[in-house]
Amino acid sequence: MQLNPTFLLIEDNLIDQLVIRQLFKKILSVNNLHVANNGREGIEWLHVNQNNFESLIIILDIQMPVMNGFEFLNAFEKLDGNDMKDIEIYVLSSTLDAKDISQVKESRHVTGFLGKPFPIEEFRKKIPGS
Amino acid sequence: MFESRILRKLQFPNVFAPLLIVFVSCALLICINFFTIKILSANRAYVNGESHYSKGQKDASRYLLTYLYTQDKGQWKLFLEELKVPQGDGIARKTLLKAGDNEAARRGFLIGRNHKDDINDLVWLFVNFKEVPFLAKAIHEWEQGDNLINELFVIGTQIDAKIKYNTLSVIDQEEFLKQISQISDKLTINERNFLKTLGEGTRQIKDLLIITNIIFILIIVCSVCFYYSIMVKRLIVSKKEIEIKNENLLQVNKELDRFVYSASHDLRSPITSLKGLIEITRLEDDIDQIRNYLQLMHNSLAKQDQFISDIIDYSKNKRKQVVIEPVSLSVLFEESIAQFMHIENANKIIFIKELLVDEIQSDSLRLKIIISNLLSNAIKYADNSKPEMFIRIKTHLSDGFYKIEIEDNGLGIKDEFKDNIFEMYFCTNKNKGSGLGLYIAKEAVENIKGSITLSSESYVGSKFTVTIPY
Fold it and tell me: Which of B28, B183, B276, B397 qualifies as a cystine partner to A117, CB 3.0-4.6 A?
């Protein structure tokens, strides 16, 4: 794990984007948080920036228009060479649906599940070095 | 649903008609068979009675002849005894003709050596069918026979008188012998005709009986088959109906599942956003930033409130009966616009109204749902990069339909989304809407038997046209 990973937030809710950006800034002192408004924008970001990071942590919402979290994970699977990279995906959702949660946890690309509102302390413990 | 009820009402008599036919046919068949058997049994009793009649007459003739030649008193008594048999039948015939069923007639039949159990049938047939050709003919033969019996009796008394007074000569004897044998011959002919007539009648009745039985059984079989086919058809129809209903129920259930799933998420998401905002507000010292966060909290709550009222609209739209009443479109537009003035940029939008139709006959709840959803979308998705933002509202009457057009020069809808925008929970930006609005609007339009169409170009604007039957 690199000491300074790049962060990508894939989330459609503007308030949640703001909240997470502020928490990153104030608690983790991370000022450079990349934001994509839905799954498709997330995939596009990965295409454009695949050579611009050493290690990446994605925070992924489930319920989004255009391309939701599950669809993003399927698209991510098909991306070339993503296994080579050091990418961790944390799924973030307000869902309480047990089926959704277990589906998230079964995905081999998902490192962890986080419930909304964004649990910053729990997240900090999971990423050493920050 | 309504049509099928009418259809069922029309079918109702159809189902019971065959049953009624079967019932009536069976009843008629039973009656006909009962009476035919009774007639045949009575005929048999008459044939039996005739044999006693002719036997009595033959024996009487024989005893009279013996008496004529032997002058033995015993033979005379036997003659009288035997002659009583045809005489008894004769009394029965005469009294039945005169008075119908009576005690004397029944006694007459008993004297005629008929079996006591046959008397009822004998009387019944005579009284009810004496006018029927074959029986009338038989009765006529019988009458002639009775007359001859009378003659025989008269000859008998003449012989008896001559014997008593010893005036019987050999010539008398021969004369009487000749008379007796003549009467006997005539009687034999009458008796044969009587039997022949009864026999013919019986055979006719038998043929008739067979034919009616066959006809009625055919009617019954056909009716039962018809009834059966109707019932099978109805079973098939109702099975199909049940299958369709089941399909619809499954559909509704699926929809409900999806609704609960999405609703729980959409109801919870503003709360989690709010919690997040509270969290960062705690970390903030800058009073202006805090004010900004408070505004966002307010927005988050407003969004949740909007979502709840969408759900209420959805449920009202589903449950409430359509009520057709006069509705003022201009009032509905005014109310909706006033309601949405708080939305960002709303006060910068120019509303252009071209209302050629104002008051229409329709359902006000549905129209309100339709208009407010279309207007709120036009406001929410306005394009504030354009120097002038407008929303044009038109109403007019064309081809016998009311048309309501809501046109804007907003962000427009991308071609890829056009097929989906009326779907439940379809939403391009969850920050602006719940994904229920257009779905509910479409349901509302369908509830008042109208239609809704869209023409839109991305970045140019959208136009929704609602068509309502006049």
Answer: B276
